[in-house]
Amino acid sequence: MRARLLWAFRYALPAVVTVAGIVIMALGSETDLEGGASIVSAGLAIFAVNWLFRIGVTGDREREREAAARAYYDRHGRWPD
């Protein structure tokens, strides 16, 4: 269930927002073109924020592994393989 929810927030939500903006741009008047472009950019921004968050979390995991390796080195005098 959690994996589906994450997938929905990472990919489905930005895709739905972006497609909605494209539909508004395609079916609307000239004024709707600007509004649709704003909605498309909002969908792309949602995707970008999700991507940047995942990059940040990956960095935290790498720092935790590095700290654990350093603690192992301090205890045993050799770097873990």
Feature tags:
81 residues, mainly alpha, 2 helices, rod-shaped
Topology:
Blueprint (H helix, E strand, L loop, with lengths): L1 H26 L2 H47 L5
Helix pairs in contact: 1-2
What does this protein structure show overall?
The protein is mainly alpha-helical and 81 residues long. It has one domain. Helices cover 90% and strands 0% of the residues. The chain has two helices and no strands. Helix 1 (2-27) packs antiparallel against helix 2. It is rod-shaped.
What level of helicity do the residues show?
A: over 70%
What is the number of beta strands? Answer: 0
**Helix segment count?**
2
Low-pLDDT runs: none
Round the Cα radius of gyration to an integer and report it.
Answer: 21 Å
Mean pLDDT: 92
Percentage of residues in strands: under 5%
- Quote the distance from N terminus to C terminus: 35 Å
Count of spatially separate domains: 1
What gross morphology would you assign?
rod-shaped
What structural class do helix, strand and pairing data support? mainly alpha
Give a quick rundown of the structure:
The chain is an all-alpha fold and 81 residues long. It has helices spanning 2-27, 30-76.
